[in-house]
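Lecture 7 notes: from sequence to structure.
We start with the chain below.
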Amino acid sequence: MKNAAGILGIIGGILGMITGFFVYGWIEFTGWFSTEVDAQVFDGPSNPLRLQIIGIASPVLAIAGAAMANLRPSIGAVLLFASVAGMIWAIGFGVLTIFPIVMTGLAAIFALLGLATKEPGTL
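Predicted structure tokens for the same chain:
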């Protein structure tokens, strides 16, 4: 369970990071385009700074939680759940975030289940 939590958390974090970079770049592009053209062609988000900060920090939390899931599964699960909550709060649950959110959430559940299980060959 703990190894699966680590692998799924890293994959979810990498996919979330790709999504976060895409969102960050889109916000920068729309801000630049609006100032160059002096027109609001693209509707920007209501709070772009939140999207930029949480969109990049949440995947980093997922990768950190996945790294901790093997030795400290409780701390890893908390970080993974925080990453899922951040991604949903900042970016939302949509086409670009389905896989990062589901993989990171499943990794958090596996990390919690890893608390109760004993690995083969351990005392």
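Points to note: The chain is about 75% helix and 0% strand. The chain has a mean pLDDT of 87.
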